[in-house]
Each structure stands twice: as structure tokens, then as C-alpha cells.
Design brief:
Length: 128
């Protein structure tokens, strides 16, 4: 896809590249607005959606009715804290075992998987 160059889009990608916490559009907006005071939340949403649609970033939906965004588009697992809602990468190797097991009992074609691990993060555990 041949996109017109956008400094705002570049700024959004640059911000996401610095983050490992999978921010929401609101967090991206608040931070990108420091460089582009006139940027609108709608512009941020449109650019995040575009970047996710063309595969330059990943959109993550973990069941909290808010999209989270990840600069790392490589296959990897995520952990979601059931207390504070943070989303973070899990540093474990991906396995094809689950997809292969699912394919054995499924007559269609499995093209991929999304797996989230849930629990309480270290920060929440240390508060209690």
C-alpha cells in the first residue's frame, strides 16, 4: 500500500516503538499530543486503525472493550492483569502444539491463534 507520508503517523509509530505496555489510543493520543498539540483523538484512532490494518502494528483485544496497540507484530503471547488491566508481552517461545492439536479435531483450516494469559501482575501482587 502506497501511503502519503505523515509526520503524525510517524510520531504514533515512534511512540509505540518505545512502549512494551500495549497502550490504548487514549494513551497514544495524550503522548503524541505533546509533539503535535493540534492532533485530534480521531486522527490518532484513524492512524492506529490504518497501521493495524496494513500490518505495521498489532491491534490487541483482550476483552476490556478497549483496543490496545503493539509495535511488535511478530507472533508472541500476552499476559493481561485481571486487577490493573495492564497488557504485557510474555517472554516465552511460541509453540505450534496448540494449533496442531486444534487442527486434528477441526475439519476446516486453522490459520493462526491468539492466546492470552490472565492473572495478576507483579505490581498488583506486591501491593497486597
Amino acid at each position: 500500500m502506497n501511503l502519503k507520508h505523515s509526520k503524525q503517523r510517524d510520531s504514533i509509530k515512534a511512540f509505540l516503538a518505545t512502549r512494551k505496555d500495549h497502550p490504548t489510543a487514549d494513551v497514544v493520543y495524550r503522548n503524541v499530543r505533546e509533539s503535535f498539540p493540534n492532533i485530534s483523538l480521531g486522527t490518532v484512532y484513524r492512524n492506529l486503525t490504518l497501521l493495524a490494518d496494513i500490518g505495521e502494528i498489532a491491534r490487541i483485544r483482550v476483552g476490556d472493550s478497549v483496543d490496545h496497540f503493539d509495535y511488535d507484530t511478530s507472533p508472541h503471547y500476552h499476559f493481561v492483569c485481571s486487577e490493573c488491566g495492564c497488557v504485557m508481552d510474555l517472554n516465552i517461545p511460541m509453540t505450534e502444539h496448540l494449533s496442531k492439536a486444534a487442527q486434528k479435531n477441526f475439519k476446516g483450516e486453522i490459520e493462526g491463534q491468539v492466546t492470552y494469559f490472565y492473572g495478576r501482575c507483579n505490581n498488583c501482587l506486591s501491593k497486597n
